[in-house]
Design goal:
Blueprint: H1 3-6, H2 13-16, H3 18-40, H4 42-58, H5 65-93, H6 98-121, H7 140-155, H8 161-181, H9 187-212, H10 216-219, H11 228-253, H12 264-296
Helix pairs in contact: 3-4, 3-9, 4-12, 5-6, 5-7, 6-7, 6-9, 7-8, 7-9, 8-9, 8-11, 8-12, 9-12, 11-12
């Protein structure tokens, strides 16, 4: 058998889908581990709550709090309009019906499952750490912002996806960090939102892979020169992964007194820990999804109608 036959996307169709199924399992396991540690253990709740209180102390009397809160209020609507515009463009300009439908399903599925998980499926036990016992895991605002960017990523041609991955997950990172700094959500709520969106993105990619197959180019992607946005995203992930791991290790090693006795300096330190966890998870998750699509995904193919891609 020749080398080209060995790497043909049709040579072992079942095996070619393993990375997609493996990614779904990995993301689901990461989500569950995050939930169990940060929501169902005292130590995890303490770290989460300290970061949240740090955010509240940081902008409690800041003049920028009002405009920043307004940004969060309008962020879901702005994200929906942006995603809707890109989906409509793909539908009209490229006469592509499948990908816009998949992108819309991704957006609605991620947002809907977050609300279902938060309000119906998951609970937050009262471990005498926080006065608020209502479950806020995952963050709805962060989910919608990240899912809107993921929907745009789905309908974007392969050549522009590295830039969309960088900008989209950068936007999601800023949205998630904002909910933490402004005291709306704990770090784990934001991390869980990223994992939910990544899971739905992988499911959308798996569906498109089944529907369209792949190509030799996509199967061997990543072996040539990477575009600048992808290199930048990889650099951010290379910095973000150890930063998040180091921040979590620091949070575990620091003393954990009664949450009401923690001073502002310590709270700001735990806010920094929370930001490192949020931003690090965002860039690592974004790179993970992008690489999966680049190596194993189904690119948007040239259409025969008027030569449109």
């Amino acid at each position: 058998m020749t080398s080209s036959a060995k790497h043909s996307p049709n040579a072992a169709p079942g095996r070619a889908l393993w990375p997609w199924y493996g990614a779904l399992v990995l993301l689901a396991a990461a989500f569950w581990a995050c939930y169990i540690f940060f929501v169902h253990t005292k130590l995890g709740q303490w770290i989460d709550e300290a970061a949240l209180l740090g955010g509240e102390a940081f902008l409690a009397a800041d003049k920028t709090r009002g405009p920043a809160l307004a940004f969060l209020d309008y962020m879901p609507a702005a994200s929906a309009l942006l995603a809707g515009g890109f989906i409509l463009f793909a539908l009209v300009r490229r006469r592509d019906f499948l990908r816009p439908m998949v992108a819309g399903a991704l957006l609605l599925g991620a947002a809907g499952s977050t609300q279902l998980l938060k309000h119906v499926v998951l609970d937050r036990p009262d471990l005498n750490i926080s006065g608020a016992s209502m479950n806020s895991f995952p963050s709805g605002h962060t989910t919608f912002a990240a899912a809107a960017m993921a929907a745009i990523f789905i309908v974007t041609p392969e050549a522009q996806r590295p830039l969309l991955a960088l900008l989209g997950w950068g936007y999601a990172a800023i949205a998630g960090a904002s909910t933490l700094v402004l005291g709306w959500h704990r770090p784990s709520d934001v991390i869980a939102a990223y994992l939910v969106v990544a899971w739905w993105s992988v499911l959308a990619g798996l569906f498109l892979r089944h529907a369209h197959g792949s190509s030799a180019a996509s199967e061997t992607a990543g072996h040539g020169t990477r575009p600048a946005p992808e290199r930048f995203l990889r650099a951010l992930a290379t910095l973000g992964a150890p930063a998040a791991a180091g921040a979590l290790a620091l949070a575990l090693l620091m003393p954990h007194p009664a949450i009401g006795t923690v001073g502002n300096v310590q709270l700001l330190l735990f806010l920094a820990v929370g930001l490192a966890l949020v931003l690090g998870t965002a860039v690592v998750t974004g790179l993970f999804v992008h690489v999966l699509f680049a190596r194993y995904g189904a690119p948007i193919r040239r259409r025969l109608v008027r030569g449109i891609k």
